């Protein structure tokens, strides 16, 4: 099983490069499945039904999210109608949405779970406990399980991957918007990268207008974030999974920057 995972899509810039490049990336890797984190796709914060439609049209099968999933009021009226748009499994403050999606193609089933970290993040239930409770029912359906771990601390993401090594196929970190160079396959077959990176403005600071961010640090005053103009980037990873064992056979970073 071959899977393309695309890191946090941010702003209109991220949606445009996704539209322009994703189909060719999927073709290049001969990927049968595509997962996209879209939690910042609506103006840099949140997502709505119309934008989810754009992301599916670009080639995504599943859209994961994170701490900004509730940023747009319209999501409350949409998320239950979309079984492939998921929010963190360990959010307990709402009966809305779901934390796991299943995609079946040509007899193969991929499970995608969304988890939020707790270090420097919004309050949520224990990610380890939530996954332990959900995993038995997930594994009844398929051995291939990808986890989007949306978190600030690389140590928390790595700890999660080591704890579930051999029980999930991959733990892909999101949220920090900076692609890490620590991709590896752990001893029992779980792939890990602590952040897949961001899809959006390349010349800003984590996608946002750099002058606003610089001024915020220099003056200590709050700032209303807006998109950095200029070139865009697309970040993500490619995974090759063994459907019989659930183990990852290959992980490769994806980084494309507009000329």
Write up this protein.
The chain has 259 residues and is α/β, with parallel strands linked by helices. The chain has a single domain, classed as Purple Acid Phosphatase, chain A, domain 2, CATH 3.60.21.10. The chain has helices at 11-29, 49-58, 127-141, 154-163, 210-219, and strands at residues 2-6, 8-9, 33-37, 62-64, 100-105, 108-116, 145-150, 170-174, 184-185, 191-193, 198-201, 232-241, 248-257. The strands form two sheets. Strands 1, 2, 3, 4, 11, 12 and 13 form a seven-stranded mixed β-sheet that branches. A six-stranded mixed β-sheet has the order 5-6-7-8-10-9, covered by helices on one side. Helix 1 (11-29) packs parallel to helix 2 (49-58). The protein is globular and about 55 Å long. The mean pLDDT is 95.
Topology summary:
Blueprint: E1 2-6, E2 8-9, H1 11-29, E3 33-37, H2 49-58, E4 62-64, E5 100-105, E6 108-116, H3 127-141, E7 145-150, H4 154-163, E8 170-174, E9 184-185, E10 191-193, E11 198-201, H5 210-219, E12 232-241, E13 248-257
Parallel strand pairs: 1-3, 2-11, 3-4, 6-7, 7-8, 8-10
Antiparallel strand pairs: 1-12, 5-6, 9-10, 11-12, 12-13
Helix pairs in contact: 1-2
């Amino acid at each position: 099983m071959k899977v393309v995972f695309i890191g946090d899509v941010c702003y209109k810039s991220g949606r445009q490069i996704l539209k322009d490049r994703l189909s060719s990336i999927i073709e290049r890797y001969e990927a049968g499945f595509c997962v996209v984190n879209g939690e910042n796709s609506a103006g840099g914060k949140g997502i709505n039904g119309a934008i989810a439609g754009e992301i599916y049209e670009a080639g995504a099968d599943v859209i994961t999210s994170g701490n900004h999933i509730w940023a747009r009021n319209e999501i409350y009226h949409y998320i239950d109608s979309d079984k492939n748009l998921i929010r963190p499994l360990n959010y307990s403050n709402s009966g809305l949405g779901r934390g796991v999606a299943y995609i079946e193609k040509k007899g193969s089933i991929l499970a995608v779970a969304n988890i939020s970290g707790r270090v420097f993040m919004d309050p949520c239930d224990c990610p380890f406990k939530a996954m332990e409770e959900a995993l038995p029912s997930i594994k009844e359906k398929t051995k291939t399980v990808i986890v989007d771990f949306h978190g600030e601390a690389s140590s928390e993401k790595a700890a999660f991957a080591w704890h579930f090594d051999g029980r999930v196929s991959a733990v892909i970190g999101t949220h920090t918007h900076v692609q890490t160079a620590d991709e590896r396959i752990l001893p029992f077959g779980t792939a890990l990268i602590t952040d897949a990176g961001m899809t959006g403005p390349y010349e800003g600071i984590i996608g946002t207008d750099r002058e606003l961010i610089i001024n915020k640090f220099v003056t200590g005053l709050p700032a209303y974030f807006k998109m950095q103009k200029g070139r865009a980037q697309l970040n993500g990873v490619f995974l090759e999974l063994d459907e019989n064992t659930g183990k990852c056979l290959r992980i490769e970073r994806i980084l494309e920057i507009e000329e």
